[in-house]
Amino acid sequence: MAMTTPTLQAPPALATTTEPPAVRRGLIAGALAFIALFLVMPLAVVLAEALRRGVGTYFEAITEPYTLAAVKLTLIAAAVAVPLNLVFGLTAAWAIAKFEFRGKSLLITLIDLPFSVSPVIAGLIYTLMFGAQGWVGPWLIEHDVRIIFALPGIVLATVFVTFPFVARELIPLMQDQGTDEEEAAALLGASGWQIFFRVTLPNVKWALLYGVLLCNARAMGEFGAVAVVSGHIRGVTNTMPLHIEILYNEYKFAASFAVASLLALLAVVTLVAKVLLEWRFGHELAHNRGR
User: Fold this and answer.
1) Distance separating alpha carbons of residues 275 and 210, to the nearest angstrom
2) CB-based contacts of 88: which residues, under 8 Å, 6+ apart?
3) How far apart are CA 39 and CA 51, in angstroms?
4) CB of 162 within 8 A of CB of 215?
5) CB 119 within 8 A of CB 223
């Protein structure tokens, strides 16, 4: 009589959660309702209000000289602040993740400082330093150098509120990667710059782009710190958020919502780019792990 070998059955897959399906559906529905109520609907209202008086009024509002000046100033401030934050964030993350030195914990704490300090306080700090009655204000006036109520002050305030974004995206990733590849490259005779550009930078390129993206979005939408140092000079020191406030206070609702829709469009573009970068970074990470 032939004996049959019993077949081994794989154990049933364990559920990741123990909640009943009704609870899970309720949580998902609650999250979607929250997103619809506090994110989707406000964006829809902004777009609807911007177009309520017609497309012609909309384009007239966004092509008005003061609006164009605000858009230009916003782009200039972001174009200066983002590269500075990129350099700082990359070097700070490299130093923190790859080296041991005294004051490392203090440096990490200082990087997080703008997250805990109100942007308005940041603007007041620069006013107390560079204003007419500030620490170096008289010297600046004597040498005809303007920082407060001018572009340099706006850039300084923007840099302050945005500089953690790049560093905070890179530090955890670099710490997780360790220093094995850099040490191997050094043993093979690579110089410090060769290690950085050929080993370190390629491994963090997607996280770096993601940090730059968030930094740029934050720079263009900054209000509190810039409001303190700008002086609200229309056509000169008003960025897009400040210009929106002035239009709204003057009861020019269609124009204010039209300009606000440009910032809303920036948010949507940022979201799409964020999703694409996350997908690309996750795909590349899975590919590297599968080697």
Assistant:
1) 10
2) 163, 166, 167
3) 19
4) yes
5) yes
How many CA atoms lie less than 13 Å away from 142 in the CB half-sphere?
A: 5
pTM, two decimal places: 0.82
| CA distance linking residue 290 with residue 268, whole number of Å | 33
Query: Which residues make Cβ contacts (< 8 Å) with residue 80, sequence separation at least 6?
Result: 155, 158, 159
Cβ within 8 Å of residue 16, ≥6 positions away: none
d(CA 213, CA 187): 35
The alpha-carbon radius of gyration of the chain (Å, integer) is 25
Instruction: Please count the CA atoms within 13 angstroms of the CA of 262 that sit on its side-chain side.
Output: 24
77 phi, psi to nearest 5 deg: -60, -45
Question: Position 117: which residue type?
Answer: V
Residue 186 burial (CB count, 10 A): 15
Distance CA 210, CA 230 (A): 29
Give the pLDDT confidence of 174-221 residue by residue, as tens digits.
888 888 888 888 888 888 788 888 888 888 888 898 899 889 989 998
Q: Count H helices, E strands: the chain?
A: 17, 0
